[in-house]
């Protein structure tokens, strides 16, 4: 047969019979995409890997535990042959040829009538790469294209599916690598970005010059409250037809006022996409070597805001109840009030020896960790000049792991 290029095509397999012969590693790799395509999957194989077995147990694949027999491909639209038995592979391949059914062979690309491209997906785009005989190169090209689409370095503007309105994007705790893939893509597509002081500010430098970057803290708010002024800026730019990203630190809904912004947009009929982010409440302790839970040490963690002191009428936090918990207490926005918080927890039963860690500017180049106990934390934080933003972790998990006060990183 002449060495022509393969003809690429997208098969619409939903509800159509696909027969897979052999339940080993090849089937394990290929089945998830066939399941995702909605194929009516029949697996013929005397044995299967535990993962393939799990797909069969979940009802995603019908598994007949036997060897291939002539006639098995009668109803197939597409066939994948992947057994270690050359004779069975040849026989199945011959049947597919007779039936004029496209057939992939894992053992002999030359004998196959179809090749599986290296595929990847990013936000509704399927990338499929064929390079003939070099699957590693196919995979490398696929990875480069998908990665480029995801992080916006490969600019391919959406014409029909560009996300309209405002995207509330959780930017993570600060390290630019800790934003989600979706958040980064939306940022790359934005016309206007309204950013907080916390979060991955380094990413703003990478935006093209036409993108208007607005510092949320500097929006003039005259007779409005600052939040109302931010809401108005979002609404105004979205109404002007701009793709607006509201870039927030951590997750938009963890002490982020994200829902207030979503509600303000909804009231104006402006579409709003919420992109979750990695919250500092878990990631900042983690970056400093503190797990918020640990087997045998803490089976719960509670995240609270310390921006109003215990005893203040505006506080919605039940500090006496928190003092009774055995697990981990994570306090955000609590640096200024740590003295009153520690005093209240001790007064309601927490041991003064309970370990405490303050992690300032977590995940950034300036990250630092200061260790203390409930009894000493106010004094230590002052002496060490701990400043916001910092996450305060209270509980025995502070002493777990090599980064703790007794560990080599201390
Ligand atoms: C208004 S809250 C926003 C929280 C954010 N939405 C989140 O999910 O992480 C701000 C507080 O988060 C904490 N925080 C955020 N980023 C931080 C970081 N990189 N290092 C330490 N604390 C951080 C601090 O306690 C800070 O005062």
Describe this entry's structure for a reader:
The chain is α/β, with parallel strands linked by helices and 410 residues long. The protein folds into 4 domains: 17-116, 3-Layer(aba) Sandwich (Rossmann fold); 122-151; 166-278, Tetrapyrrole methylase, N-terminal domain (Cobalt-precorrin-4 Transmethylase, domain 1); 281-399, Methyltransferase, Cobalt-precorrin-4 Transmethylase, Domain 2, CATH 3.30.950.10. The chain is 29% helix and 21% strand. It is built from 12 helices and 17 strands. Strands 3-2-1-4-5 form a 5-stranded parallel β-sheet, with helices on both faces. Helix 7 (226-239) packs across helix 8 (258-267). The longest helix is centred in the middle third of the chain and has 17 residues, at 135-151. The chain is elongated, with a radius of gyration of 28 Å. S-adenosylmethionine binds at residues 173-174, 198, 249-251, 254-256, 279-281, 284, 332-333, 359-364, 388-391. Residues 173-174, 198, 249-251, 254-256, 279-281, 284, 332-333, 359-364, 388-391 line the site of S-adenosylmethionine.
């Amino acid at each position: 047969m002449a060495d022509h290029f393969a003809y690429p095509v997208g098969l619409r397999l939903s509800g159509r019979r696909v027969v897979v012969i052999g339940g080993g590693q090849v089937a394990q790799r290929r089945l998830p995409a066939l399941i995702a395509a909605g194929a009516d999957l029949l697996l013929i194989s005397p044995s299967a890997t535990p993962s393939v077995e799990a797909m069969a147990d979940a009802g995603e694949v019908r598994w007949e535990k036997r060897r291939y027999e002539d006639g098995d491909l009668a109803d197939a639209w597409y066939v994948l042959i992947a057994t270690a038995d050359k004779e069975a592979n040849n026989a199945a391949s011959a049947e597919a040829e007779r039936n004029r059914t496209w057939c992939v062979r894992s053992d002999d690309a030359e004998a196959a009538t179809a090749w599986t491209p290296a595929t990847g997906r990013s936000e509704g785009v399927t990338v499929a790469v064929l390079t003939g005989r070099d699957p590693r190169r196919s995979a490398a090209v696929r990875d480069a294209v998908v990665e480029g689409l995801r992080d916006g370095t490969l600019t391919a503007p959406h014409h029909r599916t560009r996300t309209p309105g405002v995207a509330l994007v959780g930017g993570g705790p600060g390290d630019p690598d800790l934003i989600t893939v979706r958040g980064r893509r939306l940022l790359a597509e934005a016309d206007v970005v309204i950013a907080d002081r916390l979060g991955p500010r380094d990413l703003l430098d990478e935006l093209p010059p036409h993108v208007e970057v607005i510092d949320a803290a500097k929006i003039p708010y005259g007779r409005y409250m600052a939040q109302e002024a931010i809401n108005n800026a979002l609404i105004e730019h979205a109404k002007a037809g701009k793709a607006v990203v509201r870039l927030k630190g951590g997750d938009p809904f963890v002490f982020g006022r994200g829902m207030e912004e979503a509600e303000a947009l909804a009231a104006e009929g402006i579409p709003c996409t919420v992109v979750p982010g990695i919250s500092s409440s878990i990631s900042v302790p983690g970056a400093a070597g503190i797990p918020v839970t640990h087997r045998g040490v803490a089976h719960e963690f509670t995240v609270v805001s310390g921006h109003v002191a215990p005893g203040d009428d505006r506080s919605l936090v039940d500090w006496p109840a928190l003092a009774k918990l055995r697990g981990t207490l994570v306090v955000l926005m609590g640096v200024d009030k740590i003295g009153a918080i520690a005093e209240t927890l001790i007064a309601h039963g927490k041991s003064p020896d309970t370990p405490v860690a303050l992690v300032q500017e977590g995940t950034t180049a300036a990250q630092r960790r200061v260790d203390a106990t409930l009894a000493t934390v106010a004094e230590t934080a002052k002496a060490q000049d701990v400043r916001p933003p910092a996450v305060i972790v209270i509980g025995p998990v502070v002493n777990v792991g090599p980064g703790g006060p007794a560990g080599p990183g201390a």
